[in-house]
Every structure is written in C-alpha cells, then in structure tokens.
Amino acid sequence: MAKEKSLESEVGGYISTVLRTHFGKGPTSVYVTFRHPFITIYFRGFLAPMEKLQVKQGESTRVLATRDLMMLDLNPEISQGLREVAGLEIKELYADWHLLEETGMIIGVVEEEATDIPENWPDDSNPEAVRGEIIEASNKAEKVPGRTDIYWLSDRTILIRRSGILVRIEKELIKNGLAEELKLSKRPLEHEVLGEVQLEDALKRTISEIFVDWDFEHDVSFIVVVLEPRER
To answer: What span, in angstroms and rounded, lies between the C-alpha atoms of 176 and 169?
Structure first.
C-alpha cells in the first residue's frame, strides 16, 4: 500500500509539472488511481486564463481541439516521464476534459489489458446491469459494441473498455482525415447518452463525472466513471 501511495504521489507531481509547463497553468489537485494494467489521473482546477476567456466567448470546441493536439504531441514525453518517475511502461494514453468544471482525466494503459472483470466489485453492485446500461448508451450513440469490459479500479473509479463501436460512416470520416472533427462531435454526444441511461441505478452510486476517449485506429473506446464518495 505504501508503495502504491508513493507511485500515485510521484505520478501526480509529475503530471502537474507537465501541465503547468505546457499549458501555462497546473491543476489545483490531482488524484491518481493505479490498478494494473490501468492508471487514471484525474485533475481539478485546470483551465488556463486564455482558455477561460475562450470558453466564456463560446469557443469551447477550439479549446478542446487545441488540447487534443497538445496531448498528441505530449504523449511521448508523458510516457517517458512516467517510465522515469514511476517505472511504468505506458503503451497507450487517452484524455478527456470538462472545461466548465475545469476538470480532466488522463488514462494510461500499462500493457495489454486483462479480459476478465476483477473480483473486487462491491457486494451490492451488479456488473451485468452496468454493462447493459453502457451497451444501451453505446447503441444510442453509434451501435452495440463488439465487446464491453468493465473494471472497478477503486471505490470511486470505474473504467470501461469498449471495442467494435464505430459505424461505417465514422470509419470513412477517419479514413478521409477527419478523426479530430469526429472526436469533437462524438464527445458531447457520448456524454449526453451516458447521462440518459440508468447508470447510477445500476451502480447504486452517485456519479460525479464521466470521461470518454477513443483509439479510432483500433476501434476502441475508454470510459472512466468518477463516483461521489459513499456517505458515512
């Protein structure tokens, strides 16, 4: 446990520094969850002054597009940095942002992920009910995924990996060099449909935020659900 806390602290400090260096402002707080082979980095209070002005002027899409480009450029640096500070061999990185809430999520895959649902689900949870709601949301936005894997990483963090979700028109847009435009369109749609299904009822928990990103080349999507703390 002490080793995990040290790893989380090292990763949190490193990511804060990287964001501050390249965006001009670091987050006010960072929460790192590591459960092999996934690591999630959730941060709050992250919106640079210029970005705040752009959001106020209704240019959120431009901010998101710029952040996507920045993260694409930073992926090698972040992967190398996580290797140096925490000994993690990152194979894939994903990110999503909530500009109005000034929050963000970075998702890292350390190695080829497991395929079985971990056995640390809370006793009152229903994995199949959760999967059913995710499938319903996916079907509303695009189609039923070819596969849906769910991982309860911690008491407040759930990661969902979907594969085989792209429809033919999306694949054509990607082929024609419109991957970023597709992502910017899919983001709000995915958030909307995930809010329409009964995910909280299936989880028996209150959801704080949901983050989504894609690997269009391999037709894979990651969803991270951040839960509110349990009431004592």
So the answer is: 11
The Cβ of residue 112 has, within 10 Å, a number of other Cβ atoms equal to 9
- Going along the chain, which residue ranges are E strands? 29-35, 38-44, 92-98, 103-109, 147-154, 157-163, 207-215, 220-227
Measure the CA angle with vertex 179, ends 177 and 183; round to 5°. Answer: 160
Write 177-183 long-range contacts (CB < 8 A, 24+): 179/216, 180/65, 180/68, 180/69, 182/216, 183/68, 183/213, 183/214, 183/216
Output the six-digit token pair for 86.
């925490």
Cα three-residue angle 122-127-128, rounded to 5 degrees: 155
Would you place residue 122 in the very low, low, confident or very high pLDDT band (cuts 50, 70, 90)?
confident
Sheet containing strand 29-35, strands side by side: 29-35, 38-44, 103-109, 92-98
Return the structure tokens found at 215: 């690997």
Mean pLDDT of the chain: 91
Tokens linked to 84 = 């140096």
Q: Which residue has the tokens 């983050």?
A: 211
In Å, how far are 50, 78, 229 from 22, measured between CA atoms? Answer: 13, 12, 32
Enter the tokens of residue 58. Answer: 């209704």
